[in-house]
Amino acid sequence: MIKITIDHKPIEVEKGTTVLKAAQQAGIHIPTLCYMHLEDLNIEHKPGGCRICVVEVKGRKNLAPACATECLDGMEINTHTIRVLNARKTVMELILSDHPTDCLVCAKSGNCDLQSMAHQLGIRKIHFEGEQSTYREDTSPSIIRDMDKCIMCRRCETMCNNFQTVGALSAVNRGFMAVVAPAFEQNLDHSVCTYCGQCVAVCPTGALTEVDHTNSVIRALADPTKTVIVQTAPAVRAALGEEFGLEAGTLVTGKLVSALRQLGFDYVFDTDWAADLTIMEEGTELLDRLARHLNGDKTVALPILTSCCPAWVKFFEHQFPDMIDIPSSARSPQQMFGAIAKTYFADKIKVDRKNLVVVSIMPCLAKKYECSREELGHDGNPDVDFSISTRELANLIKQSNIDFTALPDQDFDNPLGESTGAAVIFGTTGGVIEAAVRTAYELHTKKKLPKIDFHELRGLDGIRQATIDFDGLPINIGIAHGLGNARKLLEDIKAGKSKFHAIEIMACPGGCIGGGGQPLHHGNSKVIKARHEAIYKEDALKPIRKSHENPYITKIYEEFLGKPMSEKSHHLLHTIYFDRSKKNVIISDEHQAD
Amino acid sequence: MSSIKIQLKQSQIDKIAEICKQFNNDEGELINVLHKTQHTFGYLPAEVQEVIARELKIPVAKVYGVVTFYSFFSMLPKGKNPISICMGTACYVRGAEKVLDELKKELNIKVGETTPDGKFSLSCLRCVGACGLAPVLMIGEKTYGRVSPEGIKDILKEYENQ
């Protein structure tokens, strides 16, 4: 332990503590901008770049960045002397001097760390005038890059490179023209980007935002020739409340249904129903592959990998193209829902698929991209028309003058709205595989599960593993969230070192609850933890907790699909993957930078 | 950064791989690999950077980030006589910018470009360590000191038949 004083308060801190952390221990909140620490996920980003967190250290000539300065014994630190306050304001004004001032119409307005910091520091005038750096705007199926608003905090780069190991973004150029960009400053669309949206989730400004489909949804709802149905992902109900001032981890399932009905959707359905369907298909595929593998069939690849996460799918298509036969061929729940809605359900209500608009509410930005994949549609008509994020839904509810917190609880419509606890936990890391185990165990052993909760599969560690006893047959299960963690498991498989039979992978930290489309956590990872716990709470409250016991799932197999992995299932509920590694980043004239 | 599109021959790809191997395919050696590759090829087009990224197992965005950070690296082929003008403090205050403007006018190219006949290319650098001779410019290995806008025509004339 070492002794220091901060703002005349003597405290003791552990060796290696930064001034920023020491100050927090003393109850002093030093302002930061580029710094980010997602404690529960073990991600710390401290480039010391913005200099907003400077403090005065006695005996030192220059001001020190608190985030990147280690405490030394006897240090005397002052966090709000006139010199510090002036420096902070000057730094802020310099940053703002090269930032557009269109806050009123910026997508990030009200949610922008730069804006809040300018407010907190009491900036009333920018004393520096001059040229501003400008860049070409880049729109992809999921993410918009407006780099005029980039302040080079480089949080996105940390998420993309260190956490996700995707490597789509890097700081390029220098000085005034320095910016974060894909290779050769091409569009994201031409890069290895997976659209996981973690860059958007941590961007402090409006430089990285989602492609907004809210208006398309409003137009569809207003069109009398269209039947508009909605599905909502499990992670949304555990986070939407935050946008209306409710505490993180508040479940708002019933209010969510009420709000969607009030918005004018003709049917309010649940992606969870399709998650139960996914388990039937994926669980059957797992058992099938396992049986063939155990019988010595060398052509069967194990482990089987989950395929619910579209960012993960795009990741392996780019980075592990020689392994595209390992993931389950099952479509994601969003796309299973779309396929069933536009066939089975459209027939039921006698509406042509072209007049049936399927909207999804997702915690995810990659889901927007997934909707645009050609193979996930029929004759150019996508199975899911529009995917909007949890944040976009919150805006839509606010625009429609709905008092969300005062709404009564309502239930989903049927037949695509009934779901089990197994489907709810799809929203968090470890949930999909737990749901699969609950079903696969009973299908394989033909016995009732002795216990439904698999605590050994839960948690927030980046990589987890457990062995589940399938009545004498030990099944080794791996779980990874974050694509960097997924990469480690994949490298093991490639090297022939993997002992797993099945692996669940989710691209985002915490799984979908930490998705790129969720309410912004502003660096507070406690929020993700609270959502994680909420998901398991919802599961425990469900009367049915195993996918194969969902009566509407049984019904659709009887009425329509036959059995899991049937020809019809294959056609509607399974998909194919592509080798995207060859789609090299080659400069074309139109994308050439100046 | 401006660039041109090229198609690498297998022998060139092998050569880049060989350079990477000389540095043990270590990502920490990226700058050295880029130096050596640029020395061999004259410049670092996108396709070359992709091979380097693949060999060193790093994202091509990172390679491009480094290439665009250091002014020494170029994604365009240099002219037969590469002109570098010093924009360091000493040269700058003694009129380097006016010299640069004159060069741009005479050659009708911008900084970072090459004349259509491939004879000259123009780039800026920071301090060649000859501040006493400011403003300084270099053409190839040859250094010219105390240059003035008026003297540019004569200097370029030396290269008329080269």
Question: What keyword list fits this structure?
Answer:
heterodimer; A: 594 residues; alpha/beta; Ubiquitin-like (UB roll); Alpha-Beta Plaits; Rossmann fold; 3 domains; five-stranded mixed beta sheet; four-stranded parallel beta sheet; 22 strands; 34% helix; disordered C terminus; B: 162 residues; alpha+beta; Glutaredoxin; 2 domains; four-stranded mixed beta sheet; 7 helices; elongated
Largest interface: A-B, 25 and 18 residues
End-to-end separation of chain A: 53 Å
Total domain count of chain A: 3
- Give me the side-by-side strand order of the main sheet of chain B: 2-1-3-4
How big is the Rg of chain B? 17 Å
Helix and strand succession of chain B? HHHHEHHEEEH
Would you report the number of β strands of chain A? 22
What's the architecture of the largest domain in chain B in CATH terms?
A: 3-Layer(aba) Sandwich
Distance between termini of chain B? 28 Å
Helix content percent band of chain A:
25-40%
Per the CATH scheme, the topology name of the largest domain in chain B is Glutaredoxin
Sheet with the most strands of chain B?
A: 4 strands, mixed
How much of the sequence lies in strands of chain B comes to 5-15%
